[in-house]
Structures are given as structure tokens and as C-alpha cells.
Specification:
The chain is of the alpha/beta class and 253 residues long. It has 8 helices and 9 strands. The chain has one domain: NAD(P)-binding Rossmann-like Domain (Rossmann fold, 3-Layer(aba) Sandwich), CATH 3.40.50.720. 47% of the residues lie in helices and 15% in strands. A 7-stranded parallel beta sheet has the order 3-2-1-4-5-6-9, with helices on both faces. The N and C termini lie far apart (45 Å).
Amino acid sequence: MKIKGATALVTGANRGLGLSFVEALVEFGAAKIYATARNADTLDPLVKKHEDLVVPLGLDVTEQVQVDAAAEAARDVTLLVNNAGVLDGRSLIEAANLSGFEGEMAVNVYGLARMCRAFAPIIEANGGGAIANMLSVGCLVQWPPFGTYTATKAAAMSLTETLRFDLRNKGVEVFGIFAGWIDTEMTSDITADKISSVEIARNAMLGIEVGEGNIDADGDAISVRTALQDDPEGLKTNVWISAANFRANHPLT
């Protein structure tokens, strides 16, 4: 689909990658953008900057009532960007309990599912458009230090794939956006090479416009996908070595 003239909704739009998605949509010519966040007041600077384009909505994707209210308020949407996500940063065994995993699932999987169910019929009714789900290279190769997070993103990837089948005859394209470390507040405590959220958002828009079902938005995603084809066992070995080095430099507190 073409971004120019589209009416978009971005979850988790008040900071980081979500904010960059909004800016990229403005750059690519979206006609209207619903920016959502749990606390709508945090969207004030964005609304002030783009007051003719951005409409703020309070939205917690873990609450069905709020998702329903957003769908009622934004019935002209043609592009949904499911960006909202949380990262607990533990493996299943390292975690003291399952509360962090449950929180990740609530946002990264069930929240995404709620939004897709609510907005797919709206997009279809508006003549078609797209749903873009922010995933991770952790979907493609699991990252042990963040084992629960990558499990949720793998589940989100599976939902993304099946949505393509469900919506194939309804005029709704479904995109999965893959990236490695992104330079946002979520990863501020992590020492690693990171790509800017601005670049990820722009690459995602380009991928949507050319119709790439799976959008590899940075070099990490491209490298991982290539390694999965050429040397999957070597990739697994390298990931485990990298994971051990990461944990040595980022001890649990």
C-alpha cells in the first residue's frame, strides 16, 4: 500500500520506536495519524508538533475495553502499526517468577491480537490497507538472556503469518517488521551496537510500500535470515557464544 493519504494508528507512540513510526508516517505523507499511549498526556509534544495530523488516544492494549473504545474512535484507519511492546530481560530459569513473562505476553501477544481483531474489519470496511506488526530478530533465532521476550515475539510472528491467510481475500496486507538492537529507552542499559529507531521506522515504511511481507529493517535481521538459510547450526553456535558474553557483561541484579 501507499502511505501517502493513509489514516494510520500507532500503538506506544509517545516515545522510542513508536514516536519514530509517527514521524516516518508524517514524512511519507499519511493524511492522519492516531498516536496512542497508556497516558494520552505524554503525547502532548507530538500533537503540538503535528497538530494538523496527529490525534492522541489513550490506550492500554492489555485492556479490551480500551481497545474497543479506540476502534470506535478511529473508524477511518487504513494502516495499523502494532508497535507497543515490553521487555522484562530475563530467561525463563533466571526469572524469580512468571510475572515478567506474563506481562510480556499481555502486551506483546494478547495486546497485538486484540488490536488485530479490532481493526482488521475496520481496515477492510475502509477499502483495504495494512497491518504492520513490530517483531524482532529474536523471532528468527532465540536469544537466551531474553528467553521469555523472544518467546512472545515468536508467538507474535506466528500470529502475523496466520493473519496473512485469514485476511488474504479482505484487502488487508499483513507485514512483520524484524530488527535487532534498536537505540531506544527500552535498551538504554544494554551495551551493544544499535540502530536508530528513525532508520527502522523509515525502512519499515519502505517495506510496506513495496509490499514485502517480511520486512528486514536492519543489517542484523538481514544477516540472521541469511545465516538461517546458509548455516543454521553455525548461527546457533554464534548466538550461544554471544549470549554468554552478553550475560558476562550484563550480570543480573
